[in-house]
Amino acid sequence: MKRQRTGETEGFGSQVSRREMVKLTAGAMMVPSLPQTKPRTAVKRPKFFTTGELALVDELSELILPTDAHSPGARAAKCAEYIDERLAESPDEQAKQQWREGLARINQLSAEMHKLTFLKSSLEQRIALLTRIAENERDPKKPEEKFFVELKSRVTHAYYTSKIGLRQELEYKGNTYLREFAGVDVSQK
Q1: How far is it, in rounded angstroms, from Cα 147 to Cα 132?
Q2: Backbone CA torsion sign across 176, 179, 183, 187
């Protein structure tokens, strides 16, 4: 076959030049590395909760440990997903029932107080409900007060055992070598 002088490749009806082919190939190789216009978020299916219950636990968690200037909150630490997984693995049917009833009670109280479910109420209304069920945190008597103690306990455990809670909030550096002891030497007193 006779070679074409213009650098065109053979076998293409449109007579694409080699230079154009290199550009097209390089461009095609770049496409997977470009940022996506829509972030790909893998929506996990709940293992124990319903989708609505998981959204409710996620919102309650974020209200208990919100994002602040120092570190992300419970939502970023995926506390609701962690609680969902632990409950799914748990053989304790009573604990599972407590969560189902507690979340239903949250929505029931929200309807009584604000005529809306918890997730449809405003931020101020959500905080008012949480304030109400947290009033007797040290000596809970009502089912919703007992549920709040359980909820807060699970959320704080999930948060402070997460990478965000440990490293960003508590600034834990891990097992690192210290050249000198950074604390107070009580043996000198």
Answers
A1: 12
A2: positive
DSSP string, 22-87: HHHHHHHHHGGGSPPSS-----PPPSSS-HHHHHHHHHHHHHHS---SSS--TTTTTHHHHHHHHH
DSSP 109-161: HHHHHHSS-GGGS-HHHHHHHHHHHHTTTTS--SHHHHHHHHHHHHHHHHHHT
Q: Quick one: tokens of 2?
A: 């006779």
| C-alpha distance across the termini of the chain, in Å | 96
User: What is the spatial distance between Cα 62 and Cα 72, in angstroms, rounded to a whole number?
Assistant: 10
pTM across the whole model: 0.68
CA triplet 56, 61, 64: central angle to 5 degrees?
A: 130
Reduce the DSSP state of residue 20 to 3 states and report it: helix
**Residue-wise pLDDT tens digits, 60-117:** 999 999 988 888 899 999 999 999 999 999 999 999 999 999 999 999 999 999 999 9
